[in-house]
Amino acid sequence: MKKEIEVVAAIIVKDNRILATQRGYGEFEGGWEFPGGKVESGETKEQALIREIQEELKIEISIDRFFQRVDYEYPAFILHMDCFLCTIQSGKIVLVEHEGARWLLKNELDTVDWLPADIEIVNDLKEIL
Ligand SMILES: Nc1nc2c([nH]c(=O)n2[C@H]2C[C@H](O)[C@@H](COP(=O)(O)OP(=O)(O)OP(=O)(O)O)O2)c(=O)[nH]1
Question: How far is Cα 75 from Cα 69, in angstroms, rounded to an integer?
């Protein structure tokens, strides 16, 4: 059976722009995504997301609301990803593991090469921006 992984991701919104980050390593290196990561045992999804964003970007976020869950089958695993709309509370972004970051307006969302699982979310985001 294929491995299934549970991931949480932050759609960080500021001044009608969305933060996209570029993966700096691994299988999807160079692809654009929403920052986040895997939920560890004993954590809620919200706790995991706040921790991941602190670790990856050195900022503190608040979670405004759940946006969407995506289920996507990659060749090597099945991804289940819960995406939350978030706001920066404090800190200045430091890219600890990403190789790039961009604040994208609605009409710029298609200018980066999103990971395959993210395309559906990006399209739905256009409806609310
Ligand atoms: N964080 C994140 N991961 C995504 C997105 N879209 C997408 O397909 N993924 C995939 C890429 C990874 O294979 C998987 C898990 O994300 P992760 O951030 O924990 O990945 P990782 O490979 O860095 O894992 P690890 O080293 O921390 O264990 O989810 C996205 O928007 N954000």
Answer: 19
pLDDT (tens, 9 = 90+) of the chain, 129 residues, equals 899 999 999 999 999 999 999 999 999 999 999 999 999 999 999 999 999 999 999 999 999 999 999 999 999 999 999 999 999 999 999 999 999 999 999 999 999 999 999 999 999 999 999
Q: Is this structure's pTM higher than 0.90? A: yes
Q: What superfamily does domain 3-125 belong to in CATH?
A: Nucleoside Triphosphate Pyrophosphohydrolase (3.90.79.10)
Domain boundaries, the chain: 3-125
Whether 52 is in the pocket of ligand 1, judged by its Cβ within 6 Å, is no
37 lines ligand 1 (CB under 6 A): yes
Give Dmax over CA atoms of the chain in angstroms.
43
